[in-house]
Amino acid sequence: MSTDEAKAHLVKRVEPVVPAIAKAAGIGGTVIADLVVLLDGSVESVKILDGPLLLRTAATDALMRWTFKPFIQRGKPARVITLVEMTFPDPSGGESAGAYEAYRAARYECQRQLSGAPPVDAEAACRAAVRATEGLAADRVIERSDTIAHLGQSLLVKDRADLALVEFERAAAMREKSSGRDDADLADLYQLVALTHVILKDLPKADEVYAITVAIFEAAIQAVPAFADDYGRRLQGALRRYAGVKRAKGELAAAQVLEARAAGIVLRPPGADVLVLEVVGSLQCIGTVEQRLTEDDVRQIRGLLPLPSR
Predict the structure, then answer these.
(1) Rounded distance between C-alpha atoms, residue 221 and residue 198, angstroms
(2) What stretch of H or E contains 244?
(3) How far is residue 147's CA from residue 150's CA, in Å, rounded to a whole number?
(4) pTM for this predicted structure
(5) What percent of the chain has pLDDT over 70?
């Protein structure tokens, strides 16, 4: 069912409760989802397709309480699937749409240049993106720090590690002041700082910054257990790179300890807990948890299957 038709059938809209962690991080935006609507107009299931991770659970909780007028097909109520969007308040506090669009366009060009092989003129594009952040609201810390980090990357690919380090440190300091030391994205910024120290052959400083990186990843896992697998993989990579620094310094025992810590992180394989197998008659149905068959699905499938031969 089209989104416009679904909106015309909507009789009860429940607004989401913005999570405290999303408010603190200054995250707003749009979550896009597929809804399965039952014959009576109630929502059977929500499948999130896109949108900020910290807003997805709140969007799902609200969407599950939406109610529609029954959808009629061939004169009878029908179970339908429709695409909907749920927009969370922009935490910017009223910045102009034009300023944000200008920033988005500049950021896109910076990222496009960085993804080139090799980057054509990423530094100029990324400096333009940093300038574009000046038009954003004061609390757009994440956008500013990310764009400054992109500028650092553009300098790094031009073998200007000394200048890149300045930008990475600036981005990390800005993000840390806003989010504190339990933010996995802050850990990634510190990891860029550490990697740049390695390039500059300052192994003692790289060692010091990697220790900070690991501590922040561990704090992030404690703060947001739901993202333990994602953060754990990133921590694992940081531990192995840290071990490489220890080996380069001749500290083999310390390197082995870090490698053992990395190997000891237990992670679920991507998707291992979301695939389900259901058997209906002669069919094996494989899909994600969100796509699990309902009793109504099973009845419809059975009705389409040929009768068993006698």
Answers:
(1) 26
(2) helix 228-248
(3) 5
(4) 0.60
(5) 83
